[in-house]
Amino acid sequence: MTVKIKEIAQKLNITPRAIRLYEAKGLIRPVKDKQNQYRMFSEKDAWRLQTIAALREIGVPLDNIRGMLERIDSGDKDEVGHYLDMQRSLLFAQWVELKQMIGTIDSMMERIRQQDSLDVSDMYALADGAKRLRGARTGWSDRWGFDRLAETYDAELDGSFGGMTGVSPEDRAQGIGGYEGCYEAALNRIGELVEPQQGETGLDIGTGTGNLAAKLAAAGAAMVGVDQSREMLKRCAAKVPGIETKIGNFLALPCFDQQFDFVVSSFAYHHLTDEQKPLALEEMNRVLKPGGRLCIADWMADDEAQRSELLAILRTNGCAPGVQLAAEEFYALRPEMLAWLKRNCYTVAEDAAIYASRLRVILAVKA
């Protein structure tokens, strides 16, 4: 059974103009009546138009819909799912950006209310600050190539990941040289501190192949793992099918406000620049329920001198790969993190070293 464009437009609540546009873009190919050249739409065309309309409703650009339709036609479920996940992540990033813009407007309005006369320089300063924050938030990129590392990531963690040549045993005992001996201990300590309960929901940021999320899920929590690497998430989903995986990063978590009982992260926070770190903490705070637990394990320093010391030791030992890696990472300043937690009404329940003074775990409880 076939129908004309006006009938199918009414049936699907799509304008004839939109249908003609989709045809012009090659997304649909209705047959034409041989006698009068009217477009005639079949049930398959109706299904395709519904699919296009659904994708447009969630903001997918027309230029990308063709490729998605081809994958749908070929039954490539994984690729379609990945694209929808990417679109979801993009919408959350836009949502976070809009919230920041609204906050800037509110600040401008408050300044105007407080002043006898309009001071444009104040408005400019607020706008300039918002611009810098937007630059920090959108400046995230994977400089480490985690998609490439995914295949061998777990094998390297078994012992060789931290084995940087040229690093002395003494330095390694202080946490210089990588994860050797510390990785598993850090994950276990997070589990002990967070104490996930049956029925709780947790978020693991920078989940990688899901090692930490798997431990917490085994204790009974429903876990969501967020990572910017598609290949890492593939490994995670294959290894621990019960974990819900989402594309995203610290700066725009693809999650709703106050969604989680606890938020954790291990060995990922140091990938953020100093300017990005407070933005990441704000995002973690946004998705954490009141009374929720925030737990981070990572390499940290007490001051700039200690951060510089790490690079100096690596250079002294001739560890070029380590220098290159460390130069692209930004070890957290512990006092700054603790100060942020205090300002935002968190109670720090644990702040301790794991083996090495530079590897620490911090547990804080939200008010």
From TrEMBL:
Residues 1-71 form the HTH merR-type domain. GO terms for molecular function: DNA binding; DNA-binding transcription factor activity. Keywords: DNA-binding, Repressor, Transcription, Transcription regulation. The keyword Repressor applies. Pfam families: MerR_1, Methyltransf_25. It comes from the Bacteria. The keyword Transcription applies. InterPro entries: DNA-bd_dom_put_sf, MerR-type_HTH_dom, MerR_fam, Methyltransf_25, SAM-dependent_MTases_sf. This is Transcriptional regulator.
